[in-house]
Amino acid sequence: MNSWRDQILKEFTPKVALLTLVADPDGLLLEERILEGIRERGFDLIPFEDHVAFRYAYESKFRARWDRGEQTDLVVVLRSPSNDLAALPYDLLQVGRKLSFNLGDIFPNLSYPIVTALDRGDLDSLYEAQTKHAPGQMGDNATKDFILRHVFEIAPELIKQPSDLLRVLLRRHYHAQRIPAILDDRLIQLLRQRNTFDDWPLETLVPDREAFFMFLQERWPIFLDREAAKGFGVREDKGPYGLAVEGPVDLPFDHQDIRGYIDNLFLEGLLHPVFHEYTDILSKIWVNIGIRTDPSQDRSSRLKKLIESLQASTPAEDARYIDWFHFARGWAEMVLLSNQQGEVISEKTTLSIESLQTHVDARFAAWLEKRYAGLVNLPPVPPVMLHHVPRFLARQIGGDRVAKIALLLVDGLSLDQWIVVREALASRQSGLLFREEMVFAWIPSITSVSRQAAFSGKPPIFFPNSIQTTDKESALWTQFWADEGFLPSQVVYARGLGDGSLESITEALSHPQARVAGLVIDKVDKIMHGMELGTAGMHNQVCQWAQQSYINTLLGLLLDRGFRIYLTSDHGNIEAEGCGHPAEGAVADLRGERVRVYSDAVLRNKVKERFPTALEWNPIGLPEDYLALLAPARQAFVRKGEGIVSHGGISIEELIVPLVQIERRVS
Fold first, then answer.
1. Domain 378-573 CATH superfamily
2. Residue 578 to residue 530: CA distance in whole angstroms
3. Which of 311, 347, 358, 409 is deepest in the core (most CB within 10 A)?
4. pLDDT, tens digit, 9 for 90 and up, residues 343-367
5. What is the pLDDT of residues 595-635, one digit of tens each?
6. What Rg do the C-alpha atoms of the chain give, in angstroms?
7. What whole-number distance in Å separates Cα of residue 421 and Cα of residue 360?
């Protein structure tokens, strides 16, 4: 077999049984490409996690069709610690075909507990290595070493000097690789066996991405001092540096294996250029990307290089979702840079951006049509879609009876606008630490769909009666946490935040029983709906708001009361140009600027005839009568030629939103 997936997918032959029941203790059927393969064979899949939610989907979508004599291929997946299907309802067990899959069967010679810790997307490399090297029976440590070498390309015995270690850490953290803690511990153990890295805080730098980038940022000016002294006879500053992250002071940034990473880190905003006394000298060599000179020239140079980088790194059609998350980070930096420039941007650069937008919009839309349905059923840890977030938060609390957690949902905040907010917050509170991840919003990317999913912890198909409004959010949020064992008095929900007084929310958060808070900040959404100056105007006004006291005071309030804070958004936004109003009268259930929603396919088809490049979106995870027509790329259903900032579509800016843990640095 060419892939571990073949062993599973060969069992899914259409028209063999109406119902297939699968025991899947290791979540193999919820891997991206397995889901895609199952769907391509004509199967629908429902994970069995919540009895009530499952019964609703099963009865409404499949049982009724079977009663009408229709043929379907349904897969019910039970993820439990064993291969036993007994937890499934009796009526399913009576009629269903039964299958079972686990990692022990696929990797029989490797330690099962170690393999189960891996992200399922990393199994490809492991299967290839197993096939190529045919290892014998391995224990825990041998399995860890095998995985480190063949999956993550880390050979501890070859890490002999600082440049070797730095290269390994750069590759790991730049690509945001998710390496299990047991493998990090093994790597640290092996490195500690030699004396070379005694002064390196490996226990911090190996697993902690943000701490590693802070470690690099603090040492970059030191390296510049050394370069100025070494190459140009300038006196090196030997004064105290006041480093917050312990470890060696001098790093080999100029090593040939390191320089390429450093360029990309500055391009994508993971490291920040600094002022230097000898800028005129250092700006003439390769380190110039990390030095502040003329702000306009810096932005122009960085923007040009960033465009070239994005052109070369656009994810392929078969990319994993994590590849799009990584790409979205650089994309957000490009959006921000290009709108900071204003009319300074050359015509050539403008054309390059427009060409790149057209290419990326088409590639992303094609990828979504192929892969989006699979994202819905992925496990909630790590969270991939907004409805995963509440379950992810519940896992963070675990069995801790005193832990507190807060979800701040900033309505309408795009990833590029989050960068603006982050910089404004950091300028006012230097002690804040931001652990940045991303999640997908729902399609269509509108508040009543995506925000309710974020607070209910469920796909929108499970709240059909409130999908046109947000009035049920408080009840959905409270119900989710009630199912997790929390009392109503322990759950806080508030909306309409963003400016004004914090008195009422202070009282709610200060209640001795308050442990879970869901807070909706709608200031950015208000800015967006009144915006007449495009994306640049959004950045300007969002920056002004973030520099004011409200959000800073709210964060301080939560942190002072012991809340662990996560910030996200229900959707982003883009600058779009009008392509004309659909003349549908009152037949549309929702008349958005980037999306129209109909309850009848015939009505949607009629409007589609007038806008042939609009996209008829299948109701994935939505009620079956929630039929969306998405406006063409970077266009809106408003007066032709009119420019607006809006949302509802499937651009990267609208669909990939921040998920950020905010905490105070430990001094």
1. Alkaline Phosphatase, subunit A (3.40.720.10)
2. 16
3. 409
4. 678 889 999 999 999 999 999 999 9
5. 999 999 999 999 999 999 999 999 999 998 999 999 999 99
6. 26
7. 25
